[in-house]
Design brief:
Elements (H helix, E strand, L loop, with lengths): L23 E6 L3 H13 L3 E4 L7 E5 L1 H13 L3 E6 L2 H22 L12 H14 L4 E8 L5 E7 L10 E7 L8 H14 L5 H4 L1 E6 L4 H9 L14 H5 L36 H12 L4 E9 L3 E4 L11 H18 L8 E4 H5 L7 H7 L4 E7 L33 H22 L1
Parallel strand pairs: 7-8, 7-9, 9-12, 10-11
Antiparallel strand pairs: 1-3, 1-4, 2-3, 5-6, 6-8, 10-12
């Protein structure tokens, strides 16, 4: 059975979450394309934030501010759109999340064991300290690169991992990044765990013999820190443009800011929108750095994976219109192999991954995405991973679940209990390593 170190935090006032007082989230299940279109229109009309976007054959999860909840529910009722409550009180869920993270910290302190970034949700400094230590301890295979600075001046770091100092031109390059969307906290642990497996726990020598690796765990450090200190569901960068509105509504959705059909679909030209694509392609320091890494390694880069959450999906281009690339068969075959590798490792509480074209898997188009850009410049295999959340009915007993991973219905999606961090990181690594090997075989 799972053992908890009891931390008495119930009386603590979590002031940083006051902004979410009264917010609620709802499952929504459109039965037709018409209902789906109506739900899509609410994103701008009622400032609805979709944690998981709905589609006709899948529930979505919508976050709704207090001032819009009555109108939101009226629209659903009038249009006969099936729905149910996901969370009655978002702030209380975030308070619980903080308690669980602190309890996890306390477990490691009690054992006098260093806490790794793939074992809990850690702040940027802790992630960077781990990267610094790995580079210092393994200088023969690891090089720490500070690629540039974020808008607010934080370093954007990545590790180059190679047994031949990136000098063997016969080796293929794999690039994995995470956290372009700041609130997706499960993604840095998955990226850091890949570092751990490549450097500290090398169980598969082929992965260094045949590949050079680039791992960037936090590509949006400003947003990531802000999501810890101010707004848990902050998604964008923290940049300010030259217009007045940007001072009130900061930031850009980095995964809408790449120069691939920029500003066409699934994005917004309003600064305040969560999916604001910026004033122009590559307006952000953060996306320009990812662009530069892709281009600098293009001649050998065969696989690019950008980690997101949540939804248990592996998606490939093209996302703006649902058309298939010339390499669609290869993309699908490697995608299926990666999903199968996850399924062989995963816990029963996680849903099985869906694999396919981005638009068809999520049910909506999006332009300016990183994976589409990487594919457009010549990277043969590019994927957006949506790591898992836990979604199940409250009356589902899940008798087959491991006792150490009991179902916590109060923590779903972005509120994934810290006990699940390492299992998610481990199964994601199985996908990444499988993807690398399959990519080399077909490219």
């Amino acid at each position: 059975m799972r053992e908890w170190i009891v931390v008495s935090l119930c009386a603590v006032a979590f002031a940083k979450h006051e902004i979410y007082s009264g917010w609620k989230s709802y499952y929504v299940a459109p039965a037709s394309q018409e209902q789906l279109s109506i739900l899509g229109s609410l994103e701008s009309k009622l400032d609805v934030d979709y944690f998981v976007r709905p589609r006709v054959d899948r529930e979505g999860v919508a976050l709704v501010k207090p001032r819009y909840q009555e109108e939101f529910l009226n629209v659903l009722a009038n249009e006969e759109i099936s729905h149910r409550v996901h969370s009655e009180d978002i702030k209380s869920q975030l308070d619980i999340e903080d308690e669980l993270i602190e309890a996890r910290h306390a477990e490691f302190r009690a054992r006098s064991t260093p806490e790794k970034p793939y074992e809990n949700y850690l702040r940027l400094d802790a992630i960077y300290n781990y990267m610094d230590e790995v580079a210092a301890n393994y200088p023969n295979i690891v090089k720490l690169v500070t690629a540039g600075r974020s808008f607010e001046g934080r370093p954007i770091k990545y590790l180059k991992i190679s047994s031949t100092n990136f000098e063997d031109r016969s080796k293929s390059v794999i690039f994995v990044d995470a956290t372009i969307h700041a609130r997706e906290w499960i993604t840095p642990p998955a990226a850091v765990y890949a570092i751990h497996k490549l450097v500290e726990n090398r169980t598969d020598t082929d992965l260094l013999d045949n590949f050079d690796w680039i791992i960037m765990p936090v590509s949006n450090p400003d947003g990531y820190e802000y999501s810890h200190t101010n707004e848990r569901f902050w998604r964008k960068t923290r940049s300010i443009d030259q217009n007045l509105i940007s001072f009130l509504c900061r930031g850009v959705d980095g995964n809408r800011n790449f120069d691939i059909h920029w500003g066409i679909v699934g994005t917004s030209d309003h600064n305040c929108a969560d999916i604001y694509g910026g004033s122009k392609p590559f307006s952000e320091n953060e996306t320009r750095i990812v662009r530069d890494v892709l281009n600098e390694n293009l001649s050998r880069l065969i696989l690019y994976i950008t980690l997101h959450s949540y939804g248990s999906m592996i998606m490939y281009p093209w996302g703006h219109d649902g058309s298939l690339s010339n390499n669609a068969l290869g993309l699908h075959m490697v995608g299926i192999a990666m999903a199968d590798a996850i399924y062989a490792k995963t816990l029963p509480v996680f849903p099985r991954y869906k694999v396919g074209n981005s638009l068809h898997v999520v049910g909506y188009g999006a332009s300016g995405a990183a994976a589409d850009y990487a594919h457009s410049i010549g990277v043969p295999l590019t994927y957006t991973f949506e790591l898992p959340g836990i979604e199940h009915d409250d009356n589902d007993d899940n008798d087959d679940d491991d006792d150490d991973f009991a179902n916590d219905d109060h923590l779903k999606g972005f509120h994934l209990d810290p006990i699940y961090i390492r299992p998610v990181a481990e199964e994601t690594w199985e996908a990444i390593s499988t993807g690398a090997k399959r990519a080399r075989a077909i490219v």
